[in-house]
Structures are given as structure tokens and as C-alpha cells.
Specification:
Layout: E1 4-11, H1 17-32, E2 37-45, E3 54-61, H2 64-71, H3 74-84, E4 92-97
Antiparallel strand pairs: 1-3, 1-4, 2-3
Helix pairs in contact: 1-3
Length: 107
């Protein structure tokens, strides 16, 4: 069964990047409690000075069922509400199939 990814793309309000990161960090223990959760990756794209930072948050899941079940859990909406407080508008969201992955284990 293929691994799936949920991809959120955020534009962060000026001066709110650190608070956005703290909100994401606070969600990590909840993600680890979700059945089928595999990994979280949060990326910052380069933007011109004075332009709101663009952030891509990717979570990977062991199956489409696990990904969809996570959306039925209240934690998802609470977490999304936290990060939206520091975002401009609602994030773009898409689901994608992971074709290749290789995450080194952590000690």
C-alpha cells in the first residue's frame, strides 16, 4: 500500500513566523498519537524582503485511510486553528501519493 502525504501551503503574517513555528511544535506530540502517522516536514521558501514567508508543511501517512481518519480527529482542527492565527488566509491543501521516500532513523 503506498504512503500518502498531506501538503499545506501557508503564507505567514509579518512578524509571526516564530509564533507559527511554536504552534507547529505544540502539535507534534498529537501527531505521534495518530494511527498511521509517519513524518512531519516544515519548509520555508525564499521570499523577497518584506514579503510574507511561504511555508510548506508536509505530513506523511501509511495509508489513505490513516490520512483521512486524522482529518476526523478534533486535534487536526484545533491544530489548524492555532496555525491559522498566524497565517494570511486559509492554506492551500492537497493530498499526494509518495513515490519515493528515505528518512534516516534518529537516535
Amino acid at each position: 500500500m503506498p504512503m500518502l502525504a498531506r501538503v499545506h501551503q501557508f503564507r505567514i503574517r509579518p512578524g509571526k513566523l516564530e509564533e507559527f513555528i511554536a504552534a507547529i511544535d505544540s502539535m507534534i506530540p498529537l501527531l505521534h498519537q495518530q494511527k498511521g502517522f509517519k513524518a512531519l516536514l516544515v519548509l520555508r521558501g525564499e521570499t523577497a524582503p518584506g514579503v510574507a514567508p511561504e511555508i510548506t508543511a508536509i505530513t506523511t501517512w501509511d495509508s489513505l485511510d490513516s490520512l483521512r481518519a486524522s482529518e476526523e480527529n478534533l486535534y487536526y482542527y484545533r491544530g489548524l486553528a492555532k496555525v491559522l492565527a498566524f497565517s494570511e488566509g486559509f492554506p492551500a491543501l492537497q493530498e499526494e501519493q509518495v513515490l519515493v521516500s528515505d528518512f534516516a532513523g534518529t537516535d
